[in-house]
Amino acid sequence: MKKILLIRKAKIYIHVELDDGAKLVLKEDTVAKHMLYKGMMLDDEKITEILSDDGKQRALEKAANYLGYGMKTTKQVKDKLKEKGADEESIDYAIEKLSEYRYIDDNEYARLYAQQNAKKYGVKMIENKLRQKGVSANIAKEAAKSVANSQEEAAKALLEKLSRKYAGLDEHKKKQKMYEALMRKGFEWGKVSHLLKVDYDDGFEE
Questions:
Q1: Secondary structure (DSSP) of 76-124
Q2: Which of these, 9, 62, 110, 115, has the minimum number of CB atoms within 10 Å of its CB?
Q3: DSSP reduced 3-state for 68
């Protein structure tokens, strides 16, 4: 058993000193939850429980602060917490709590991302970028498909800009440049070839 010799408040955390020389640096909420006081006796199991609860609260706070900059995927939050030194148990706790209140929601994140980027990228690129952000394959695919109907208008708008950009080139070279640009942005070959009125015989391949 270990005895609490001193409880001292620092700038942010509470310092709890034990009679074996150990020092616990805890959040004020943790101290309050466990009703710690000078002279209290703690066994190893209780100390482990206190440290576990404190780690969970710190992870939750860090995750909430990170989400203050905008919506994030589950993977992005996990990666940020790992970067900050949180352990797996604390990370899982923070993710579970924030998901419960829908502060983390990969479905909603993917839906909004697809809508916001529908004029910039094709369906394939939207899906790929969502996968890169840690969204599951099924969610990414469904989100990308949800904006498929707007892809032709988006492609037309981009072609108008590209047409002005490559105005000085001969017609074939111009189409080649525009075709390559749209394919890089993830637009489907069939849609691009239809809008540019080109096919395999013209040397334009998927």
A1: HHHHHHHHTT--HHHHHHHHHHHHHTTSS-HHHHHHHHHHHHTTTS-HH
A2: 9
A3: coil
Q: Which residues, including other chains, have CB under 8 Å from residue 172's CB and lie 6 or more apart? A: 202
Sign of the C-alpha dihedral computed for residues 139, 140, 143 and 149 taken in this order: negative
From the list 74, 117, 110, the residue with the least C-alpha distance to 92 is 74
Give residue for tokens 């706790």: 93
Q: At what angle do helices 106-117 and 123-132 cross, to 10 degrees?
A: 140
- The upper half-sphere exposure of residue 178, i.e. CA atoms within 13 Å in the direction of its Cβ, equals 29
Instruction: Please give the Cα distance from 14 to 56 (Å, whole number).
Output: 16
Task: For residue 41, list its beta bridge partners.
Answer: 3
Q: What is the pLDDT along the chain (206 residues), one digit of tens a residue?
A: 999 999 999 888 999 999 999 999 999 999 999 999 999 999 999 999 999 999 999 999 999 999 999 999 999 999 999 999 999 999 999 999 999 999 999 999 999 999 999 888 889 999 999 999 999 999 999 999 998 888 778 888 888 888 888 888 888 788 888 888 888 888 877 777 777 775 544 555 55
